[in-house]
Amino acid sequence: MSVARIAAAHARRQVAMARRTSRETTRLWRRADPGNIAASWRQLLPSAIALVTRSQTMAAASASTYVGDVASSYGDDVTRGRLVASAFSGVASDGRSLTELLEQPVSTVLKQLAAGQRPARAMTGGALALDMLVRTQLADAGRVADGVAVAIRPQLTGYVRMLVGNTCSRCLLLAGRRYEWNDGFLRH
């Protein structure tokens, strides 16, 4: 299989998992009481954190196979390093606790209610915020694990930035370039 196909399949799996996790956390969000959003979401939050943590681990766990498959497609027989997927889960990608991060949709709702928004519309705003947060955390866990999966294999000296799906103009300029294993790029 070509590298492009391997990368596309990996990206599809990661996006599908993020979509499923987002749907599950949104189902939890819909159980929250708009009249008592902070307290009711706090009761549901442990379930949301468990969902996100489990999915972050799964997103990270796929990195070893992905990197190994890419290397194999080039004919490289690389040692599969040991990646500890759970090290990429249970925290937000900016270092905060998932609890603190996943409480943000409550703030979104409260701000919208204070601005005179109807409760149903404010809850929709909170759901959208939750969706973005969940998808971002899963993408970040998978992306960072992919990089670590390269770094733990001394035979691999770098990577090529691939385009998969919709790409912004800034990322488009980075595509196709080879980077050393420890060379990052500005993200947005």
Approximate strand percentage: under 5%
Beta strand count: 2
Neighbour order of strands in the largest sheet: 1-2
Encode the helix/strand succession as letters.
Answer: HHHHHEHE
Radius of gyration: 19 Å
Summarize the main sheet: 2 strands, antiparallel
Structural class: mainly alpha
Identify low-pLDDT runs.
none
Average pLDDT score:
89
Helix content: 55-70%
Distance between the termini: 31 Å
Continuous helix count: 6
**What general outline do the C-alpha atoms trace?**
elongated
User: Quaternary arrangement of the chains shown?
Assistant: single chain
Tell me about this structure.
- There is one protein chain.
- Helices cover 64% and strands 3% of the residues.
- The protein is elongated and about 60 Å long.
- The chain has 188 residues and is mainly alpha-helical.
- It has a two-stranded antiparallel ribbon with strand order 1-2.
- The relative contact order is 0.16.
Keywords:
188 residues, mainly alpha, 2 strands, 64% helix
Short summary of the structure?
The protein has a two-stranded antiparallel ribbon. It has helices at residues 3-30, 37-73, 98-102, 104-114, 119-151, 169-174; strands spanning 158-160, 178-180.
Question: Topology, pairings included?
Answer:
Layout: H1 3-30, H2 37-73, H3 98-102, H4 104-114, H5 119-151, E1 158-160, H6 169-174, E2 178-180
Antiparallel strand pairs: 1-2
Helix pairs in contact: 1-2, 1-5, 2-5, 4-5
